[in-house]
Amino acid sequence: MEEFKDQVVVVTGGSRGMGKEIVLAFAERGAHVVIASRKIEACEMLAEEVRLRFGVRALPVACNVSDWDQCGELVDAAYAEFGQVHVLVNNAGLSPHYPSLVDVTEPLFDKTIAVNLRGPFRLAALVGHKMVESGGGSIVNIGSVEAIRPSHMALPYAAAKAGLHVLTEGFAQAYAPTVRVNTIQPGPFLTDIADNWAEGAREELEAVVALGRCAEPAEVVGAVLFFSGSASSYSTGALLRVDGGWR
């Protein structure tokens, strides 16, 4: 519980779902948090909650990670406030629906790639570079089982998450030995994305995982803490499946 005390953790997509649970977990352990998402009001509400509950500092930042410049502004804001970042969690994601593959539009495709791949690239590049200068840190990417078990109804998303695996390997080599970069690959989680699943989708997913159920958002926390701290000191460029035993 003391390992992350007074460390600075940046979480994208941090105001809800898995991101919110990650923020709460680090704040409970004494870390100061930068909560980034598109909607500043939600970030501000969560920031106030963690200040009151855990007595840590919290910086809410409006950031659309698909915007190259906004990624830079997020990093600038974090370092202006805290002077250092110890952990970056690239959690923000987007998996839009479409009626069929032929109906995927260029804007939908580009937006999906931008949120799920371009944003994590830019943030890892900027923060990882600064981590090297300051002596080290950990970058944790949130991927998806879609990267290895793609559905035809989420192909742009799956392709972006597969690209995230490549970024993980590449950044792990680029910023070694002081910065570690790893990816968590969740299976079906009951986040906001699940609210838009088609009728019967949850039952279909639960039928193909060994544990027989979808995960709650907080069930990603253990893996994130593992990759962020000393327990994974010899892990970099690694991929950890948190998918309930996807068959």
Automatic annotation (TrEMBL):
EC code: 1.1.1.-
Coiled coil segments of this chain: none
Gene3D superfamilies cross-referenced by the UniProt entry: NAD(P)-binding Rossmann-like Domain (3.40.50.720)
InterPro entries found in the cross-reference section: NAD(P)-bd_dom_sf, Sc_DH/Rdtase_CS, SDR_fam
Keywords linked to the UniProt accession: Oxidoreductase
PROSITE patterns assigned: ADH_SHORT
Entry's Gene Ontology molecular function annotations: oxidoreductase activity
SUPFAM superfamilies: NAD(P)-binding Rossmann-fold domains
Family: Belongs to the short-chain dehydrogenases/reductases (SDR) family.
Protein name listed in UniProt: SDR family NAD(P)-dependent oxidoreductase
